[in-house]
Amino acid sequence: MRCPYCGSLDTQVKDSRPTEDNTAIRRRRVCPDCGGRFTTFERVQLRELMVVKRSGRRVPFDRDKLARSVEIALRKRPVETERVERMLSGLVRQLESLGDTEIQSETVGEMVMEGLKQIDDVAYVRFASVYRNFREAKDFESLLGELNLGDGKKAEALAKLKRGETREPEPE
């Protein structure tokens, strides 16, 4: 494994252990050349997946890119990292088990939205607003209708969105 600090190819594993959900191996490494320490994760990959974009372009599936977009949607939300990791691992397993090496980007997006809906409604709305390219408030209104909120909660959520409040208030 190449050292991210000096580029040396001679790094040593100091500690290995499975992650909480047993879907990866976490390795602590050290570079003997510069002394830098870093962590790597090793995951099982059943097949090489390609994502077919709306433009028709094909790109390799990148779990880290998916994790970053989910992390952005969940920014400042009270969600445990373990839950997010379980959702991502489950999503990747679902994609790999579809039986096809080429997956439409729409399929990935819809699966992420479904996973976020189970974890956090605000993150779901955030992700959906970018993914579905919302242009006006009524787009949010129709999405909130999908959440099956009671009328009072729906009205409250809409009011918050219109005021730009997309996160819970900070505890005092």
From TrEMBL:
Gene that this sequence comes from: nrdR
Cofactor stoichiometry and binding remark: Binds 1 zinc ion.
PANTHER family the record matches: TRANSCRIPTIONAL REPRESSOR NRDR
Function: Negatively regulates transcription of bacterial ribonucleotide reductase nrd genes and operons by binding to NrdR-boxes.
Pfam families: ATP-cone (PF03477), Zn_ribbon_NrdR (PF22811)
Keyword hit for Nucleotide-binding: yes
Residues in ATP-cone domain copies: 49-139
Name of the protein described by the UniProt record: Transcriptional repressor NrdR
Entry's Gene Ontology molecular function annotations: ATP binding; DNA binding; zinc ion binding
GO terms for biological process, alphabetical: negative regulation of DNA-templated transcription
Organism encoding this protein: Azorhizobium oxalatiphilum
Cofactor (UniProt): Zn(2+)
Protein family per UniProt: Belongs to the NrdR family.
unnamed Zn finger ranges: 3-34
Domain of life: Bacteria
Keywords: ATP-binding, DNA-binding, Metal-binding, Nucleotide-binding, Repressor, Transcription, Transcription regulation, Zinc, Zinc-finger
InterPro entries reported in the protein's UniProt record: ATP-cone_dom (IPR005144), NrdR-like_N (IPR055173), RNR_NrdR-like (IPR003796)
